[in-house]
Amino acid sequence: MHSITITRPDDWHIHLRSGAALQHTVKDVARQFARAIVMPNLVPPVTNVEQAKSYRDCILRYKADNAEFEPLMTLYLTDNTSVEDIEEAAQSDFVKACKLYPAGATTNSDSGLTDIEKAYPVFEKMAELGMPLLVHGEVTSPEIDVFDREKVFIETKLRPIIEQFPNLKVVLEHITTKDAVEFVASQGPNVAATITVHHLMLNRNDMLVGGIRPHLYCLPILKRQEHQAALIAAATSGSPKFFLGTDSAPHTKEKKETACGCAGVYTAYSAIELYAEVFETHNALDKLEAFASFYGPDFYGLPRNTDTITLVKESWKVPKKLCLGNDTLVPFRAGETIEWKIRDND
Ligand SMILES: NC(=O)N[C@@H](CC(=O)O)C(=O)O
Ligand SMILES: [Zn+2]
Ligand SMILES: [Zn+2]
């Protein structure tokens, strides 16, 4: 049987949510990944070390006793984040990054930055302390078309930040455009990007042709095919600037299948298997390990994992529905077949 063994991967961008949802989200991520950068967009958001610690403790309570999963915590930057907040975060051994949400850009981003330049003293401290800045890179101005929001953000917001703070480590999260790929590739080694599996597998036709598929609606929104092709080329290029971040973001079935549905795709149930499928489709299985397991920790200055997982070419069906606390969740590829499977006894 066809199989590949790779260093255990990490997920550098995930939403685990809080409360009863953790029972499911933590199990799914820990089945595949050793570590995950946990997004702080809870209600209320995780804005300081104390909150990050109690959120981390909640996550660890849902980890099976034998599972070795380490949540890497992040702080949500608000207009009130202080330089002292950053210093405290850098002193902790579990806060690994801070997240910039432009206010109003995405799910639970209302407390995000209303004026990015006002946070420059905070960025300066982050640069000094080597704390990475993770960016949801979309502008929010109503006059900017939703399909152009990433591209406009890069030119009007991100480029000035990087010019002002040339040593700041920046991850442009969940990139969706050729423009983002080119921008990140053109910058120094302190600028990187995560790429989701759904943006590698899909373009906007998949979401909109033949009927609207609310479970494929996410932010940044799926783009046209040429952008998808640029993401595939970046992920399979062997460049250390591009690494795995699922942006798995669960919302209940009820909140997705409605007149005004939430943004987010739940890929955590089968993420590494899906990435294996994409890399195989593009004849790049040999590039999967570095993308999934090396470039992320290298960028963050963390050790690579030392254990392995084995993926076997074996088809299996994703359930039509999963539980999310007391609610129902429709995972990515619900009811469909996936061609790769993690071997259970690893
Ligand atoms: N990606 C999404 O569509 N949604 C994320 C937020 C985010 O990462 O922007 C969520 O928290 O639901
Ligand atoms: Zn985001
Ligand atoms: Zn996200």
UniProtKB/TrEMBL annotation:
Pathway: Pyrimidine metabolism; UMP biosynthesis via de novo pathway; (S)-dihydroorotate from bicarbonate: step 3/3. The keyword Metal-binding applies. GO terms for biological process: 'de novo' pyrimidine nucleobase biosynthetic process; 'de novo' UMP biosynthetic process. Substrate binds at residues 15-17, 41, 136, 219, 251, 263. Residues 11-314 form the Amidohydrolase-related domain. Homodimer. Catalyzes the reversible cyclization of carbamoyl aspartate to dihydroorotate. This is Dihydroorotase. It comes from Kangiella koreensis (strain DSM 16069 / JCM 12317 / KCTC 12182 / SW-125).
